[in-house]
Amino acid sequence: MPLRLLKYAFSKEHPDPAFFTQPDSLKHSYDAVIIGGGGHGLAAAYYLAKDHGITNVAVLEKGYLGGGNTGRNTTIVRSNYLTPEGVKFYDTSVRLFQELSEDLNLNLFYSTRGHFTLAHTESAMRTMRWRAEVNKHVGVESYVVGPDDILKACPQIDISCGGNAPILGALYHAPGSIARHDAVAWGYARGAYQRGVDIFQSTEVWDIKTSGGKVVGLNTSRGFIATNKVLSAVAGFTPRITDMLGIRTPIVIQPLQACVTEPMKPWLDTILVSGSLHVYVSQSSRGELVMGASLDPYELHSTRSTLDFVEGLSGHILDMFPFLSNVKVVRQWAGMADMTPDFAPIMGKTPIEGFYLDAGWGTWGFKATPVSGKTMAETIAKDQAPELIHSFRLSRFEDYELTGEKGAASVGH
Amino acid sequence: MKILHCPINGPRPISEFIFGGEYRTMPDPDTCSDKDWADYVHNRSGGPGVKKEWWYHAPSGTWIIAERDTGSDQVMATYLPNSITKEATHE
Q1: Percentage of chain A with pLDDT > 90?
Q2: A256 in the same domain as A171
Q3: What CATH number should be reported for the domain whose range is B3-90?
Q4: Do the Cβ atoms of A253 and B73 come within 8 Å?
Q5: Among A71, A97, A164, A368, which has the minimal tally of Cβ within 10 Å of its Cβ?
Q6: Residues A259, A168: one domain?
Q7: Is B19 in contact with A243 (Cβ distance < 8 A)?
Q8: A328 exposed, middle or buried (CB, 10 Å; 0-12, 13-18, 19+)?
Q9: Å from A254 to nearest chain B CA?
Q10: pLDDT band, residue B88 (cuts 50/70/90)
Q11: Residue A301 domain-assigned?
Q12: Cβ(A184)–Cβ(A100) under 8 Å?
């Protein structure tokens, strides 16, 4: 190795660009504390500082930034939902995503691919037509296409799926995209840090203290923090946090698994989803096929992987693309999905004053990272949830006013 | 967990079973408040821990109760539901 290169590596003149520096210790009090250093929590911190000028904020992360579901999803961004409330909400997110690389001054590899939700049955076609109409009504570009259009976008697909489940058509969603998920978390972290937010990794919350129904502080592995506002943005760990406060929710944790293949030359331009075959697949900028399936079939607080998953998924992928039979799966992993009965999130205020929830993100959280950060920041700053997330409030389960989004879940869970 | 012990059929692969959710006691719909009823309909104990759960052995059509740790996925016991449903009706 040339000596010059070694000298360059050891010199202090060109240090590694650090995204943020962790302070040595917690302050005694913060205006707001965010539990969870994933995309959602960091986005909330970023928009609290940027939109509302609240910078005396701490983000506490038990592990490392973006190590939970932010780094475990299949990075699909879309807004082709079923309810007008859902479509409006996710459309706001897609628009924020489109500007986000510029906003955060970081290349998120945001890539608009077009998104096909394949229908193999008449009843699936009916749901696609329904979703297309709701989407069009709200101004989102989605429409129903036939097998020819699918073949034009993806000539490699076996349209009969091995004769088992012939594709009748699809819901095409033009703005469907993928992005580099770690970069989203890191970009928000840097933006928040530059505006004065303190970020602590390896910091666990043990207990949330209340007095007279109001939040007064938290006990953490780094000591006590006095604060009147706490946001929980912890996805699969939500029940452990709400149990600290005795808040009841419908959330049940089930693992969701995903995997990637070895890298290939680019051949798959679009994002393909099949509800009947329980598959979603896209090709990453590295050339790997990123694939996921439906939830594991029972409650479990663990991120273990199973052979059942990869076996089942491979079988279905081969129905669609028989030529992939020699391609190897190189990694598989799982995340803990916080599922709600109506497949919509739980966002906003709770019965405890000063405790805010950003939860119930199940299998649909990554795409909502920017909009959930923005709306939760507003909720914390004004102590009132904006109209955009009214349908996602926790009290909807008491009012029987559910927001049924199951028909828009990527695969039939 | 890859094998679940069915009290009727013995140890069977988990793929033969369907998860039926947590075992819960229904409040009396005639006397409980709307709030309590909504809580019963929607809310669950979501945290990890040992829970009583409904499981259905599909090939034999048998509903059983499993006591399982949802954190470690270890099953402590499985039995037929009549023992606890009897208790519940006496309450």
Answers
A1: 92
A2: yes
A3: 3.30.2270.10
A4: no
A5: A164
A6: yes
A7: no
A8: exposed
A9: 10
A10: low
A11: yes
A12: yes
Mutation for testing the B interface, residue in A249, A299, A336 having most B CBs under 10 Å = A299
Give yes or no: residues A273 and A232 share one domain: no
- Write the single-letter amino acid at A10: F
Which of A242, A298, A301 lies at the smallest CB-CB distance from B48?
A301
Query: Which amino acid is it at A201?
Result: Q
Across the interface, whether the CB atoms of B70 and A400 are under 8 A apart is answered no
Mean residue pLDDT of chain A comes to 95
Minimal CA separation from A253 to chain B, in Å: 7
Is A82 contained in some domain? no
Inside any domain, residue A135: yes
Distance CA A181, CA A206 (A): 28
Among B18, B46, B73, the residue with its CB nearest the CB of A253 is B46
Tell me which residue of A29, A68, A61 sits closest to A45, measured CA to CA: A61
Arithmetic mean of pLDDT, A57-73:
97
DSSP letter string, A26-56: --SB-SEEEE--SHHHHHHHHHHHHHH----
Structural domain ending residue among the three candidates A290, A310, A339 = A339
Number of domains into which chain A is organized: 2
Count of CB pairs separated by less than 8 Å, A with B:
57
Give the residue from A369, A389, A346 showing the smallest Cα distance to A70: A369
Q: Summarize pLDDT for A187-226 with one digit per residue, the tens.
A: 999 999 999 999 999 999 999 999 999 999 999 999 999 9
Give the mean pLDDT of chain B: 92
Q: Residue A51 belongs to what domain range?
A: 28-72+182-251+342-408
pLDDT of residue B91: 41
Instruction: Tell me, yes or no, whether A63 lies in a domain.
Output: yes
Show which of residues 15-44 on chain B sit within 8 Å of chain A, judged by CB atoms: 15, 18-19, 21-22, 35, 38-39, 41-44
Q: Among A339, A367, A399, identify where a domain stops.
A: A339
Q: Of A14-23, A107-116, A305-314, where does mean pLDDT reach its minimum?
A: A14-23
